[in-house]
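seq as requested:
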Amino acid sequence: MLERDLLNTVREFEEEGEKIIKEAQEKIQKMKEEIKREMIDLRNEVERKIEAESKTYREEKQKNLIKEIETFKKHFESELENLEKSYKTKANELFDKYLKEVFSYGYREG
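struct tokens:
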């Protein structure tokens, strides 16, 4: 009888141990799944933040480049305008000079 009681006790402990192991494995599996979901959520959040920062950086960089281009455009337009004025002035001066020479040549001949 004592032997049977001991065997029953051992079986009960084995069953209880198996039950505890099974519950622990189930909890571990649930924890793994939860960690996996959290990691996916975190990765998605980080990717969204990176994309938002990248977009903001690109937009800011683009704005700065547009400002630089506009500044250069204004500068070059101003330079072009100055060159045109200078060209017109010099062209008029040369034209006047040649007219004077032509008229003076005509008067010398005549």
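The chain has a mean pLDDT of 89.
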